[in-house]
């Protein structure tokens, strides 16, 4: 379900619609304002949740409270797409991403409607092998487009000292497919989630995340590893965990961890920026503003608890036991104490 805060947001929604059409995922589109038609938003969300909608995409600009209001009225995952109307879209970004504990919004970059739809498809794909296959095909096609773009660029480079070196890089091998993932997404013996902290300075938030995962009875594996300091070790870890259903990446500063993770997987990646310097804004902005095709479900600064809750919302679509744990947790959650 795609909900727009205003008809003026449709140009961003068109990007989402285009991706969903390519992937063959059914969708509906509604226009409802969090501030002007609050009851309409609530009714759309509650009825859609009851009727089996798996993921919501909320698209809004300015003081973009729409995705948050959606999250307040459903236990299904909510993807937020901030729209640039004023202030370069930063007002909308901060309004969407900085949600309180218990109502996470998986935020993508400003005006990134395509990434919102790809993230929604990745979430659906946790429980749908057909969607995973289509996503993998689309990613491969994007690789070939980049390769063609590079060849076209080479034709324009005529400098005296330009020297083109020929070498083959089979980037297709880095894309996880069902064939090279023998345990698949439905292996009950493998952890549901891989939690990755980029540095020991991020451990506090990682522990908060795993604490909430324990409460929600979600299985996980953890590691502290930097793709910058230990690239080979990081690559090995990604290969070892390719059967998990989703990743939670926790990082401060320039937050390269999330970008590195999405480079190795087509599964959902939840990103938690940490406040190490600059109030965490450096980590937040470098994490959320991913290029087309590789979204990170970014949450608010230091929002380790919401990362676990969002993971439960994603997994709860297909697993009744996790859904029930999530519902019980939300019902009994004492927000001031978390």
Main features:
alpha/beta, Rossmann fold, 12 helices
The level 1 CATH classification of the largest domain is Alpha Beta
Count every beta strand, where a strand is a DSSP E run of 2 or more residues. 10
CATH architecture of the largest domain, by name, is 3-Layer(aba) Sandwich
Helix content: 40-55%
Strand content: 5-15%
Describe the global form: globular
Structural class computed from helices and strand pairing: alpha/beta
Biggest beta sheet summary: 5 strands, parallel
Low-confidence stretches: 172-183
The number of helices is 12
Helices and strands, in order, run as: EHEHEHEHEHHEHEHEHEHEHH
Strand order of the largest sheet: 2-1-3-4-5
At the fold tier of CATH, the topology name of the largest domain is Rossmann fold
Give the overall pLDDT as a whole number. 90
- The number of distinct structural domains comes to 2
Question: Roughly how many Å is the radius of gyration?
Answer: 20 Å
Distance from first to last alpha carbon = 30 Å
Description:
It is a single chain. 44% of the residues lie in helices and 13% in strands. It is α/β, with parallel strands linked by helices. It has two domains: 2-125, Rossmann fold (3-Layer(aba) Sandwich), CATH 3.40.50; 193-318, Rossmann fold (3-Layer(aba) Sandwich). The strands form two sheets. The chain has a five-stranded parallel beta sheet with strand order 2-1-3-4-5, with helices on both faces. Strand 6, helix 7 and strand 7 (220-224) form a beta-alpha-beta unit. It is globular.
Concise structural overview:
44% of the residues lie in helices and 13% in strands.
């Amino acid at each position: 379900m795609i909900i727009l805060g205003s008809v003026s947001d449709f140009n961003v929604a068109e990007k989402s619609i285009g991706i969903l059409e390519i992937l063959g995922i059914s969708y509906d589109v509604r226009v409802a304002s969090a501030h002007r038609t609050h009851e309409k938003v609530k009714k759309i969300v509650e009825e859609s949740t009851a009727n089996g909608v798996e993921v919501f995409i909320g698209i809004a600009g300015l003081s973009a409270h729409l995705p948050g209001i959606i999250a307040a009225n459903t236990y299904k995952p909510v993807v937020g797409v901030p729209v640039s109307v004023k202030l370069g879209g930063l007002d909308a970004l901060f309004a969407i991403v900085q949600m309180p504990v218990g109502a996470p919004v998986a935020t993508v970059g400003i005006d990134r409607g395509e990434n919102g739809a790809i993230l929604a498809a990745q979430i659906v794909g946790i429980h749908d092998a057909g969607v995973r296959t289509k996503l993998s095909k689309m990613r491969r096609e994007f690789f070939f487009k980049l390769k063609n773009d590079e060849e076209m660029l080479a034709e324009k480079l005529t400098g005296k000292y330009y020297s083109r070196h020929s070498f083959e890089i089979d980037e297709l091998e880095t894309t996880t497919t069902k064939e090279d993932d023998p345990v698949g997404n439905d292996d009950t013996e493998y952890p549901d989630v891989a939690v990755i902290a980029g540095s020991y300075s991020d451990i506090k938030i990682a522990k908060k995340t795993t604490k909430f995962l324990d409460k929600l009875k979600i299985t996980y594996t953890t590691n502290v590893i930097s793709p910058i300091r230990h690239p080979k070790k990081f690559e090995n870890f990604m290969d070892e965990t390719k059967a998990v259903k989703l990743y939670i990446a926790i990082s401060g500063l320039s937050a390269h961890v999330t970008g590195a993770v999405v480079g190795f997987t087509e599964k959902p990646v939840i990103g938690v920026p940490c406040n190490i310097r600059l109030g965490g804004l450096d980590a937040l902005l470098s994490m959320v503003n991913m290029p087309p095709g590789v979204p990170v479900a970014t949450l608010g600064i230091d929002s380790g608890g919401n990362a676990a809750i969002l993971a439960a919302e994603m997994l709860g679509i297909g697993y009744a036991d996790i859904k029930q744990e999530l519902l019980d947790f939300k019902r009994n959650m004492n927000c001031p104490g978390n």
